[in-house]
Design a protein that fits this description.
Elements: E1 3-7, H1 42-49, H2 57-67, H3 78-88, H4 98-118, E2 125-126, H5 128-137, H6 144-154, E3 160-161, H7 162-182, E4 189-193, H8 194-203
Antiparallel strand pairs: 1-4, 2-3
């Protein structure tokens, strides 16, 4: 079967997220070894993880709702929880371990801070212009056409709610990571086979 070529604009530094900025601070902050039991988040994690020591989508949804991380915004839907797990699920178990949970927690807090900064009227939504500000702050360089496509996918009557905003951030991050792993020469375009493309697209 013929391969597929995808192009990611010009090979400029801003084409991929700056991991030191905004929503991406903290993604790799917990890669070292440590005693989990000594971590203040361990008790919280262990209470929701159950006997298997991992968190699935339903458990994550309950955890995030009880934690109040959404604040005055609507709780996360089960679908958003599924794609959050898919972003962090490096061993393809459909669940998250403690390290993955901590990385996600750090990302969610940063995403929320960005959202609240733009949502100054506390309406719980952002529009196209406000979303483009957030995405730019995260280090992405997207065309107006791509931004419009994102708004069409995630908005309700032209407004994007917090839950959908998080789902959008997750997919942007996951698809960009997928692209970067294959763009070894940092050229802004890659070649891969159809099956590889489907595995990425269907997993998120």
């Amino acid at each position: 079967m013929p391969g597929i070529q995808l192009r990611m604009g010009q090979p400029v530094p801003g084409a991929v997220p700056n991991m030191s900025q905004g929503a991406y601070s903290g993604y790799s902050a917990y890669s070292g070894t440590y005693s989990a039991a000594a971590d203040p988040m361990w008790t919280f994690f262990a209470a929701i993880a159950g006997q298997d020591g991992e968190v699935d989508a339903e458990e994550l949804q309950r955890c995030l709702t009880q934690s109040g991380i959404s604040g005055n915004y609507s709780p996360f839907s089960l679908e958003t929880c599924r794609i959050m797990i898919s972003m962090m699920d490096r061993d393809y178990t459909g669940k998250m371990g403690f390290n993955e949970f901590k990385e996600l927690w750090a990302a969610l807090n940063a995403w929320k801070q960005n959202f609240m900064m733009i949502d100054q009227d506390r309406s719980g939504t952002v529009d196209l212009h406000e979303l483009s500000q957030v995405i730019t702050a995260m280090g992405y360089r997207l065309s107006p056409q791509t931004l419009t496509a994102i708004v069409k996918r995630y908005s309700k009557n032209g407004r994007i709610f917090f839950d959908d905003y998080v789902a959008c951030c997750v997919k942007l991050r996951a698809l960009t990571d997928f692209f970067r792993r294959r763009d070894n020469m940092q050229q802004g375009y890659v070649n891969f086979v159809y099956d590889d493309f489907l595995q990425c697209a269907m997993a998120i």
